[in-house]
Structure formats: structure tokens, C-alpha cells
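User: Um, what's this?
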Amino acid sequence: MIFRGGRPVVRLFKFTVQGLGNRRTEISSSCVERVPALYNVFQSQHYSNLVLKSSLVTPKLCRTYAQGAVSRPKAHTGRTTTAARKAPTTSKTKAAKKPAPKKTAPKAVPKAKSKAKPRITPKPKPAKKKKALKAKPKPKAKVKKPKKVLTEAQKSALTIKQLKATALKPPHEVAATTWGVYLSEQFKGADSATIGHNLGSLVKGASVGYRTLTPEQVEHYNHLANQNKAANAAAYRQWVESYTPAIIHEANLARHHLKRLGVKSPQLQDHRQVKGPRTSFTYFYGERYRSGDLRGLKVSEATKLAGREWKGLSASEKKPYKDLATQDMARYSQERKTVLNKDVQHKSRT
């Protein structure tokens, strides 16, 4: 108990107060309470029957702040008193409660190991005999077959086949003559095999009937022939225009080559093709033919006569024809480059 300015402060560790009515009140030592005039309560005559039982010892009272005048106690600073720091030592004093040990999880009890069964070792299987690997045979070297040597006839046939593929095949034409229309009408409905076996006799019988036609019948077949001719021309023009001028030009070159090999191949007619350049002699021959002096002569005779006259002309007389040939060559070169996409210059022939 500490006295400060007439206000006692009591620090009790553990007291049991028993009063009237046989009631007990415990004050724990873990808290410090300021009880004004608690000392006077204990000495009061009115409460003389109160019995103070202590499970510990009588708390040791000491005075602090002895020097100087006693004043109002200051706010609690958190420092403990001397009585609190010094623990009483008597036989009746119970030892301070130790903090309860932390509960730890019970350790898992290891299960008793079952008796290990004896291991049964399997009997080793007999090792399979490895088959001896056969060495792979080396791949045989490919023997290049010698190229087949073609004969001259085979080479010519192959060349003709390639040229025909380049030459193009025009569409099939229907009969465009009076006889052709009449003959196709006679064969209409007949089997092709029958026509093939009896073609000669059928043509002879049709020719006899054709001679006996009336003028009205001939006029009828002529009209049909003209219609077929116009239809053929329209179909041919449409077929030609389905190709570019360059392709038609290559086809005509192939046809020219076929003609030299003895295969009948007329030139394809295309109005888009570039006309070839004229020579100075062709200009001279055209002028002579238009004059009428070569009238009545064959073409071969007229050409020979005009050739002799051309050779007898002087250079000044040939100059106008050569100038025309030069101009026409320039025209041909420009059109060839534009239409055929070729830039090939041809020397003018005199």
C-alpha cells in the first residue's frame, strides 16, 4: 500500500475477503486498482466482523518519492513499484502461476510395419536367339536406256505432227455448193457404215438424180448453198478472231513449212495480219500491168518481160520505185512491232 497525499494505493496479489452473508470476493494480483481510503475501511468499527484472508502474505508497503513534499499522484507512467518488483518469500505464499505450456499436436504414431512377404523372383526366360541381320543388297545402278534412234521417215512424221499442232485446225464447214447440198440431202439419215461401204454406188445414183433436177429445184439448192457459204464465213471469222494475231501468224508459218514438206495446208485468212513489205520491182510491175501493155499475156510471160525491162532501167529511173519500197518497209516494221510484238527489220530487195 502506497500513501500519496492521503490517497492510499493498494496493490494486492490475491486477497479473499469474507464478510457478512458468507460471500467471498477475489481480487486478482494482475490488476492494480486505486481504492480511496481503503485503509480506513479495514479499520472501520462498522465492518469489524470482516475477515481478511490472504492466500499470500501481507503486501509490503513502501513509500516512494520520499524527498520533497507529498503531492497529487501523477499519471501512471508504466513503471512498476518496488513492492511489485520484490516478490514475498514465505511458506504460505503460493508460487506464481507459470504460463500454460502450448498445446502441441500429438505426434502421429507410426503404424507397425507388416511383415514383409518374401519376394518371389521370376525364373529368367531363355534369351531369344537374335536372327542374323542380312545385309541389305545395294541398290542396282539404274542403267540409262539408250535413246531410240529415229529414222528419217520417223523424224519427218514427228515434225509434221508438231507442225500440225501449231498450224491449228479450222472449224468444220458445211456444204456450200449446189452439188454438195444435194448430195448431203441424199445421204441424210443413212448410216455412216453403209455410206462407207457403198460410197461409189451411192454417189453414182445421186449424180443421175442431180442431172434430172428442174430449174426450180436447182434454184432451191443454190439458195441453200449461199446460206451455208455465209454461215461458214461467219464461223470461220469468229474462230480466227478467237486467237491473237501472233498465234495466227505462227500457225501460218507452220502451214508454210508443211506445204514445203508436201502437206496441203492453205494459209489462214486473217484481216488483222500485217501485210508484207513490197519491193521496188513489185511497184514497177504493178504500174506496167495497169498500163495495159501486158494484157493477154500469161502471168509467167508478163513477169519475165517486166523483169527484162526493170534491168534495163537506170538508177535515176529506179529511184521513185525504191523510195516507195523504203516507205512501205517503215510501215511494215511499225505494224509488226505493234500487232505481232516483234521488232525484226527486213532489208528491202531491189
